[in-house]
Structure formats: C-alpha cells, structure tokens
Design brief:
By secondary structure, this protein is an alpha/beta fold. The chain is 38% helix and 19% strand. It contains 16 helices and eleven strands. Strands 1, 2, 3, 4, 5, 6, 7, 8, 9, 10 and 11 form an eleven-stranded mixed β-sheet that branches. Helix 2 links the parallel strand 2 and strand 3. The longest helix is centred in the C-terminal third of the chain and has 20 residues. The chain is globular. The two termini are 25 Å apart.
C-alpha cells in the first residue's frame, strides 16, 4: 500500500464514460471495466475521464483493504473475480499471485518505455509494473527535536534502548509494508540473523498493528492523522514518499517536511497490475493496463499515490521532487528468494513477535 492514505480517499469511484447509453444490462456491462485494488489507489478525475473518452469504457474502482488482504481476497475469488484488472500486488507477494494463477498474460503497449529492472515477469507478461518506491521507517522530527535525541538511521538503531517503545509497524501477514519491512530485515541480517534482530525489536517495545492506515494515521505522532488521533509513536514503518505527502497536504506548505526517513531501513517495493484470469471484460482490461503505463497516467501518479513512475520518460511533478527523500541503497531481494522463503518467514515472524 502506498502513502496515498494521507490524501482524501476516493472510496468506490465510478466515472461515467462519454457517449454512454441506456442499453440492456449486458451491453452496459461490456462498457464498464472494473479495477480491483488496495485502498491506496488514486488518480486525478480528469486523467481517468481522459481514458474513458479515449476508450469508450466506464471505469469502476473497487478498493479492497490493505494490499495483503486484497491479494488474498483476489486469489480466493479468482474463479468469479470482482473485476477485470487487479492493481497493487507488489514484489513481496508477486509469486503468491502468479503461483495461484491469478492473472492471464498480456503484453501492455508501452512496455518499451518501462525500466527493465522492474519487469519481473517480462518473459510471460502476466503482470505489468506500474510504480516503485521504498518501504522505510519514518520519524516525527518534532518529537526528536523536543527530546534532544537523534532520530534512528539504521535497522541497528531501532533496537537500541534510546528508541524503546517508539516504533510501530504493520503485521507482516496482512500488510505489504509490514511484509516489506520484514523482508528488509531478512535481506540485511541474512537467513540466520533476522530472527535474533526481531527478538531485540520485541524486547525494545515494537508495536504491531494490522495495516498501514492504523499505523500511520492513528499511531504515528508525526502524521496529520496521527496528531488528530493522539498517536504516541514517533517511529512508523511507511514509505520514503510519505514526507512529501505530509508536506504537500499541509496548509500552508512548509519549507521542509515535518517527518523524515531513516534511509538505512529501506526495502525497495515494485507494484504491478494484471488482467485477471477470468475477467469479464478482457478487452477493456487490456486497454486499462495500456493506460496505466501511459505517460499521462505515470506523471499523474506521484501526487496521487506518492510513488515513483516506472516509465523512464515520465517526469515527477515539481512539488513531489521538492520534498522527495533520496534512498541511495535500499535493501532488495530476488523474487525467487522471496517465493521460496516468504511464507515460512511470516510464520516464524508471527510466532516470534505476536505470541
């Protein structure tokens, strides 16, 4: 899930296509393409209307919880899917979706302009990369200034006594940022070291909640939502793009963002979309996938979903660039290693941290 939860949610968004008619239900249904997504999908209304005008399809966006929950539900309903295209499966959950036959192959138009290093299924084209970013610990600048304490900069720092009872993270079994953070620690400390690290985090008072919305907008003292909710945790697992969102949605906009990023705690995330295997409107779904990697949509994403475009010729808006946090060396993990270890790691993590 992306940092877009800072913005006003779109809810269940239905936009009417130009030139629609009152034909019978079957005909009307053929003119609708449904995008199933996690809660953080967002796009400018005029951008979606442009797609509708060009394609003749009405777009319906159905949001289905945190990314982990949405992927699991999509797999359970794959024989009778809720929509035509699914957006929001990331590199941490990709093998689960592919192994369960969630998507059918489609080579989207425009892939030649998409960076090769994010095309993790380029041989079969079951999914199309849409955006990338980093899952990182964010910190509340005011808290650390008031307490005359340096904010943490690394995984090691988070386990130090100075940061006891300050961190909130998401459940790795239900939340994509929670899982990404777990994988980041596994990449950093290795197969034999990450469990000992989590024992230290648990002893240091890490708090675990179900999903990103709760962690960031309720528990985190540095976010606008967290302030309103009385959040008391100045450290949260979120995204490198969360500080730009905090700054851009402030009125007036500050010179610098009120939150920062511990850049030594980051794990790279890539999000994908795919044509669902039993999509009712395959033609509309293919058109929508083409649009999601079009330059128009890609340049609209940063200020809506606070992620980086994957098109190499797409330019992020100036406000996004102004507040962006550069992460030079995020942790990464090969997709096959994630596939081989994810479920067992999550099981071990659950026993270790939640019980």
């Amino acid at each position: 899930m992306t940092a877009v939860g800072l913005a006003t949610g779109l809810g269940l968004l239905t936009l009417s296509a130009c030139g629609g008619s009152d034909g019978d239900s079957a005909k009307a249904e053929s003119k609708t393409v449904t995008l199933v997504s996690h809660d953080s999908f967002a796009a400018s209304k005029d951008v979606l209307k442009e797609f509708e005008k060009q394609s003749g399809y009405k777009v319906k966006v159905l949001k289905d919880g945190d990314a982990g929950q949405a992927v699991n539900k999509a797999i359970l309903t794959k024989d009778n899917p809720q929509g035509d295209v699914f957006f929001g499966v990331d590199n941490t959950l990709l093998s689960r979706a592919l192994d369960n036959g969630l998507f059918q192959p489609y080579e989207a138009k425009g892939l030649a302009s998409v960076a090769e290093d994010v095309q993790l299924d380029r041989d079969k084209h079951r999914v199309t990369p849409i955006d990338s970013g980093e899952i990182c610990v964010n910190y509340d600048k005011k808290y650390f200034a008031d307490h005359k304490l340096d904010p943490p900069g690394s995984f090691d720092d988070l386990a130090k006594p100075a940061y006891k009872n300050l961190l909130v993270t998401e459940n790795a079994s239900t939340s994509s940022p929670g899982l990404g953070f777990l994988l980041g620690t596994a990449a950093h400390y290795g197969d034999d070291g990450w469990q000992d690290y989590w024992k230290k985090l648990k002893a240091n008072g890490v708090k675990v909640v179900d999903g990103w919305e709760q962690a960031y907008n309720e528990e985190f003292s540095g976010s606008a939502g967290g302030k309103q909710a009385g959040g008391d945790r100045p450290l949260v697992v979120s995204y490198a793009s969360s500080p730009p969102a905090e700054a851009i949605y402030s009125d007036p906009q500050p010179k610098t963002a009120p939150t920062g990023v511990a850049t030594g705690t980051c794990f790279r995330q890539i999000e994908f979309a795919g044509l669902l295997s039993n999509a009712g409107n395959e033609k509309g779904g293919k058109a929508l996938l083409d649009f999601l990697i079009s330059k128009r949509f890609q340049e609209d994403m940063p200020l809506n979903m606070f992620v980086d475009p994957v098109r190499e010729d797409a330019e992020a808006p100036a406000d996004f660039v102004k507040y962006a946090v550069k992460v030079d060396d995020p942790e990464t993990m090969a997709p096959d290693k994630i596939a081989d270890n994810r479920d067992q790691w999550v099981k071990s993590w659950t026993s270790l941290v939640l019980k």
